[in-house]
Amino acid sequence: MSDPAEPMLQFFEFSHLRPDLQAVSKPFCELAHNSIGNLPRNPERTVMLRKLLEAKDCAVRAFLYVPALVAAFFALGCLDWTFPVFAADLQLKAAPPYSGSPYNWSGLYFGGQVGGEFSARPITGVTTGSLEFLGDPGSLGPNAVGFAGGAHVGINFQTGGFVIGAELGGELSSMNSAGTFTADMMNTATVVRKPWDAYLIGKAGLVFGPRGEFLFYGLGGAAVAELQNDVTITDILAPGALKASSSNVHTGWTAGTGLDWGTGPVVLGFRYRYSDYGTHGLSFDTGTGSFRADQSARDNQFTGRLSIKLN
Asked: Among 82, 182, 226, 247, which residue is least crowded by beta carbons within 10 Å?
C-alpha cells in the first residue's frame, strides 16, 4: 500500500496526458507507489522520489525530442505550411530492427551464367595419307572467340570465414574458328566449333566485407566438351566439292577463380575459368581418301553469374 499522505505522488499522475505520453509516464508512477509502500518515510525516500520525478520528466522530454535544426525551423515558422503541429505533437517512430547479421553462404543454390570465351590449341600431327594436298584441316586457334551461356547448380558449406562447395554446370557455346587455303589446285575450307561444354568442380574461398557478403574463391575439377570439325575441298578446275566432318567429345580439367556478392537469396558473381580438354585423335573420310590428326583444345572463359540460394 502506498502512502496517500505523500505529497509528491501528485506529480506522478499521468491520466491527463496523451495516450502515447501516458505509456511513457505510467511505469514511473507505478514505481513511485511501490517504493512508498515498501520504504519507510524519511529524507532519503524523499530524495529518491525527487530523483525518480526528474527521471520521469527526462523520459517524457526524450520522447518529445526534436533535433535542434528542426526546432529552429519550427521557431522561424518555416515548416508551418508542411507540419502545422507543435513539437510535442510529433509522433516518433521506433528505429528499424538491426539488419547487420553476418551473411550465410551455406546451402543449395541454382542459377545461370552468360559471357564470352576465346582461344584454344590447334589441330596438330596431321597425317594425310593419299590426300597430301589437304594440308592442315583447320584449327581452333587464338582467333577463336564466341559467346557462352548456360546454367549451374551447387552447394556451399560455411565455417567461420571459410567456404567450401561443389558445383555442376554447362554452357552452349558459339566459339568457332574458320580458315581457307589453296594447295595443288585445291581450295580447302575448314571450320572448327565447340557447341557445348560441361564441368563438375569443387571450390574453396574466403568471405570478406562488413557482413561477410563477399566471397572470393578458387575452383578446380573435371571438364568435358564437344569439338566439331568440317572440311570442304573444291577443285579449282572442276565443279563439285568433297566434304568431310568429324565430331569428338573431349574430356579434361578446368581451374579458375571467382568473386560473388550475396544479398538475401540473390548472389551475383563474376568468374574466370580455364579449361584443357586434352589431346584426342580424329579422322576424316572424303570418299576418295582419308587422313588422321591429333587435336588438343584449350580455352578461356569469362562469365557473369546470377544464383538463387534455396536456404
From this structure: 82
